[in-house]
Amino acid sequence: MQAFLRTIPDRGSGFERLEIRLLRHRDYSSVREIYKAVSNEYLQYQKQRTGEVYDPVRLDLDMSQLDFYVATHCSFAAIENEKLLGVLLAQALRWVSDWDRVLWLEYIAVHSAHRRKGIGLALISAAKDFARRHHIKSLFTTLNIDNEESKSLLLKAKFDVKDWRIASYSS
Ligand SMILES: CC(C)(COP(=O)(O)OP(=O)(O)OC[C@H]1O[C@@H](n2cnc3c(N)ncnc32)[C@H](O)[C@@H]1OP(=O)(O)O)[C@@H](O)C(=O)NCCC(=O)NCCS
Residue ranges of the domains in the chain? Predict the structure, then answer.
């Protein structure tokens, strides 16, 4: 079982120990909790911004979707004090666009109370490490046109954000 510890600066009080490890079946309820909260957050954001929902999103995940992402062996959970604070769902793809072998990042989310502590970047680093070990040269994802935090995160992780919808990283 792959896992590594990462010390991240806690902007409040010293340092916290963050474990990034592979996603497990037992993480399901925590992942769904984050997923539902993030979907609701996004719906609220849309209503506040324009008074309507212009991009309806799923409100929940199926167990079968999580089964799939556990089985890819490249989806990661961020754990602090035994609590799941963030998740990254990914799969390796044989061929996408101009890339021969890519790691497709389907979803990344961090619990709202624990953002801006480096957890998102730590999850992406785990995905990059996986890609390096498996001779996968590129990471690939998409982002919503209005998702500034996602765009900032990907730029900080040295992705090439070609436009607001498609982002890629090449080592
Ligand atoms: C996007 C998300 C995963 C970032 O997670 P995070 O743990 O807060 O990210 P990090 O702390 O690693 O941030 C790394 C960098 O990303 C950028 N960033 C992250 N959140 C940002 C925000 N709200 N505004 C501006 N820049 C932001 C910053 O450059 C940040 O570095 P800094 O804190 O030193 O300035 C998190 O905000 C989230 O879960 N959002 C809701 C779900 C979502 O939109 N997911 C992405 C699309 S599926």
Answer: 3-170
